[in-house]
Amino acid sequence: MKDLKVILFLFILIGVITSCQRDIDIEYGSFESKLVVNSTFNPDSVFTIHLSKTGSLGSDKHNIESVNYANVFISTDDPLDSVRTMYHSENGQYIAYNYYPEENKTYFLEAHADGFPSVYASNAIPDKVDITLYDTTTVYHTQGQALQFDLTIDNDNNNTSDFLIYDIVNTNRSVKGNNPFSVEGWLEAQWLSSTSSDTDRVNDSDNLQTKIFQVHNGQSSGSLSSSFITYEDFDKSTNGDTTSVQNGKVMLRIMSVSEDLYNYSKSIEYYKLNDNVNSNQTTPLEIFSNVEGGYGIFGGYSQTLFEL
């Protein structure tokens, strides 16, 4: 009799549990897709802009979707300049043919596409800074040898701040055409470590970065010194195979960037160093944006190259 009561209790318990189960459909709510702008410009190249769109969390599409039918315009703060129309080339890339941006001129972007809010942004190309590479030495560490660069940046006393970014490039990847702020450029970048106390650390837990970030306060007197190390062997890739570097030139690139582009590049570096990890256990990583009505970057820079 006792066994019969136990069996009866189990049947009742199973019935209660199964009767409480039901399928729940997750509702993501309304979603408004927005335009994403990707444009970093300098005097060496014509104006180019890439347009894509944001996707919802519930979408099964994970690739970046280009927007190929937008009306895109560039104008300046000079009343004598005409508004330039940018023409679609391919895969969301828009070009202002034969139109090269200039230093110290503010540019305004606007883009309109059916089904999206219009986007607006503005930025300028800062002057090149006066930089002297006064020493390059070989140093040794636990994994072998490396190159150390010692630089001075002269103060122009114009009461403005210079936002500087340093990295290493190979001329076999077109220096003029290569976007130093692209994901592809990051994946092939050299690892650097700053030996200066006045550079910005992107990640407190790791001293290695693909770019060195530094703000030169124009109100300070004298020159600013900077020193950093690259740990990569220029003749080898990460898998040990000889690379095409032997047929090109390895160069130190020093970029004077706008404040917006500086903040954007730092956020990208931080995002990559943290392996794109976003979960309910971590704070989502936000990428800096200066685009009104959408997302992305519209930023200017000038660059100085030193052959190594």
What would a concise description of this structure say?
The protein is 12% helix and 38% strand.
Description:
The protein is globular and about 55 Å long. The protein is mainly beta and 308 residues long. The strands form two sheets. Strands 1, 2, 3, 4, 5, 6, 7, 8, 11, 13, 14, 16 and 17 form a 13-stranded mixed beta sheet that branches. A four-stranded antiparallel beta sheet has the order 9-10-15-12, with no helix packed on it. It contains three helices and 17 strands. About 5% of the residues have low confidence.
Key phrases:
mainly beta, 2 domains, 3 helices, 308 residues, 13-stranded mixed sheet, 38% strand
Mean pLDDT: 75
Strand coverage percent: 35-45%
Helix content: 10-25%
List segments where confidence is low: pLDDT < 50 over at least 5 consecutive residues: 234-247
Judging from the principal axes of the Cα atoms, what is the shape? Answer: globular
Q: State the secondary-structure class.
A: mainly beta
Gap from first CA to last CA: 92 Å
Largest sheet, strands/sense/barrel: 13 strands, mixed
Using DSSP, what is the number of strands? Answer: 17
SSE blueprint and pairings:
Blueprint: H1 2-19, E1 35-41, E2 47-53, E3 65-66, E4 71-76, E5 84-90, E6 93-96, E7 106-112, E8 119-124, E9 131-141, E10 144-153, E11 161-170, H2 183-187, E12 192-194, E13 199-200, E14 212-217, E15 224-230, E16 250-257, H3 259-273, E17 295-307
Parallel strand pairs: 1-17
Antiparallel strand pairs: 1-2, 2-3, 2-6, 4-5, 4-7, 5-6, 7-8, 9-10, 10-15, 11-14, 11-16, 12-15, 13-14, 16-17
